[in-house]
Amino acid sequence: MITSWYNISADLPRPLPPPMDPYEGDSRIALLTRILPSDLIDQEFTAERYVPIPEKVQELYERIGRPTPLRRARGLERAIGTKAKIYYKFEGALPGGSHKLNTAVAQVYYASMDGAREVVTETGAGQWGLAVAIASALIGINAKVFMTKNSYMNKKQRVLFMRVFGADVSPSPSDLTEFGKKTLAKDPNHPGSLGVAISEAIEYAVGGEGRKYIPGSVLEFVLLHQTVIGQEAMQQMPEEPDLVVGCVGGGSNFSGLSFPFIGAKLMGKGFERTRFLAVESNAAPKLTRGSYMYDYPDTAGTLPMIRMYTLGHDYVPPPIHAAGLRYHGAAPSLSLLVKDGYVETRSYGQGEVMEAARLFAKSEAILPAPESAHAIRAVIDEAKRMNGGTILFNLSGHGLLDADAYERVLMP
Ligand SMILES: *Cc1c(COP(=O)(O)O)cnc(C)c1O
């Protein structure tokens, strides 16, 4: 079992730019310290290389099925005729079907330690909401989830399952908050957006006793919790990988897998020849086409600004099925590593990604999440080019609740 999380900010080539307040308006940093569990605030700013995982969270990791399997994709290797060996870490094996539970159990635990009776969050496609619902059921506190109305209508299964675990799910915009009411007054048929949902979740968290807000990606402590993935992979891999690949929404699953390896490389403890490749969607290409600057992590500008690759916090991505990759920015530590050339980047379109998803499904007998299929697309392209060598990638989730994405595959 892994007993501490790895904090890459201790080993970065230069200091991580801290979160910042805008020049005008209320302090967002003060707001953040009010709504987040206090241990998470500490973790956001700590320079400690290893952060001990509380015993209770270690126990929860065991209960949800950690360590997750590391598998060799022999079927995929044969299907593409490569001499490279391909390994993947299967985070879809966790309850809920994605890596998000790794940070959900930690965050809900810290909220409960702060005396919270309810955690509040937003969700787009619903993977994060479902992870929070499961973690809250395990720990025994309430979960309140604001889900973008469009997804609420289209991802009925995730809504249903969140409720089975006891979560209270509202389509956003809702009439539970002033911001929601204002949005509905302007447009009664507003389809919802992550920005509106975040604003509603924060307003709701601030507006009641015993409530804490918890986020699903982008913040540094989320990446920190996900490093259990890479630390396990390091123990499980039979050899050093030449290439480590993951998909990027806000950056948590890619960083969770790759940071322990990148950290070892930065410390001079092996992996000298290992390359790292972050794969994003053409629908939100912040790493390949965005700017490195201070920007808000949320559309409404409620949270402190962070220095990251961003397309602008008001960027409206075209609707794509891999909803988890529609985010406008990428976490500060990952952005810095991209900026300084330690991590390579690439973006793909929906068609070529779903084609890779189907090949993986047929050759490995696992239906991948459309998000994870971006990593698979890159792995296939790289493996075809490599003459031997070893690839490791993160299968961040399974796609069994993503019928809408697969419908597209079968269309002529
Ligand atoms: C949320 C999600 C992502 C994208 O988020 P990151 O924070 O970049 O990891 C990728 N894959 C799956 C399965 C997800 O649920």
TrEMBL record:
Transmembrane segments: none annotated. Pathway: Amino-acid biosynthesis; L-tryptophan biosynthesis; L-tryptophan from chorismate: step 5/5. The modification N6-(pyridoxal phosphate)lysine is found at K100. Residues 65-397 form the Tryptophan synthase beta chain-like PALP domain. InterPro entries: Trp_synth_b-like (IPR006316), Trp_synth_b_CS (IPR006653), Trp_synth_beta/beta-like (IPR023026), TrpB-like_PALP (IPR001926), TrpB-like_PALP_sf (IPR036052). GO terms for molecular function: L-serine hydro-lyase (adding indole, L-tryptophan-forming) activity; pyridoxal phosphate binding; tryptophan synthase activity. It catalyses: (1S,2R)-1-C-(indol-3-yl)glycerol 3-phosphate + L-serine = D-glyceraldehyde 3-phosphate + L-tryptophan + H2O. Keywords: Amino-acid biosynthesis, Aromatic amino acid biosynthesis, Lyase, Pyridoxal phosphate, Tryptophan biosynthesis. It holds the Pfam family PALP. One of its GO terms (cellular component) is cytoplasm. Its cofactor is pyridoxal 5'-phosphate. Its EC number is 4.2.1.20. Belongs to the TrpB family. HAMAP family: Trp_synth_beta. Tetramer of two alpha and two beta chains. NCBIfam families: PRK12391.1, trpB_rel. The beta subunit is responsible for the synthesis of L-tryptophan from indole and L-serine. This is Tryptophan synthase beta chain. It comes from Thermocladium modestius.
